[in-house]
Automatic annotation (TrEMBL):
Keyword Lipid metabolism attributed: yes
InterPro entries given in the database record: AB_hydrolase_1, AB_hydrolase_fold
AB hydrolase-1 domain boundaries: 3-231
Protein name: AB hydrolase-1 domain-containing protein
Assigned keywords, A-Z: Glycoprotein, Hydrolase, Lipid degradation, Lipid metabolism, Signal
Highest taxon of the lineage: Eukaryota
UniProt record similarity statement: Belongs to the AB hydrolase superfamily. Lipase family.
Amino acid sequence: MAMYDLPATINYILRKTGQEQLYYVAYSQGTTTGFIAFSSIPELDRKIKMFFALAPITTSSNMKSPLVRVFDLPESLVKFILGHILVFDKGEILQQVTSRLCGYTFFKSFCSLVLYLPGGFTDSLNVSRIDVYLSRYPDSTSIKNMLHWRQLYQTGEFKYYDYGSDNVLHYNQSTPPFYELENMKAPLAAWYGGKDWISAPEDVNITLPRITNMVYKKYIPEFVHFDFLWGMQAYEHVYKEILELMKKNA
């Protein structure tokens, strides 16, 4: 995603719009992808006017989500539980069924647990929209991506994917190299929450001091992970400030 998908997306947008730079607004794993891409590809880094990171993640050893306990299991068992290729692949039919069921008042409380359990409990979520949220969340991903997150969680180190004995073939060394966050020169503005179980503030406070061009950061004590995406206070606390920073740096 960081080395191929994101560069292709950014280059396509710039080519089509005729612009030389763009703003990159990212949430959760989208920030991880940005950190990797911009610190690893200097020519891509120069195309970012400003990087807005909501609930940023690099290291993840302080995750508090109960669902992260699956990462404590052996790799073979993780693959068995999550699937060998795709994870969270609901398919169109299951997606529609989930959306319809969660539209009924009787099921809304149960459905809301799907959002609360991973990222923390909040009273600022618009529960009437649960069916809309769950029609798209969680989306599918690869088992390799999940195993990489397992690696980051277990080691507390922001490194390339660990291929084990094949590391020498991929990296010409026996262990995966670190991602050099200090190489990222794009201006970064970050927002993170005090009750976030996924992007834990302890981990964010390890990440941000490594950023060489930090232009703004905001700690929101009451925010959980999904408040940045669907919280009713997201506009006032986050989106409004993003727009102001864009205008200021236009």
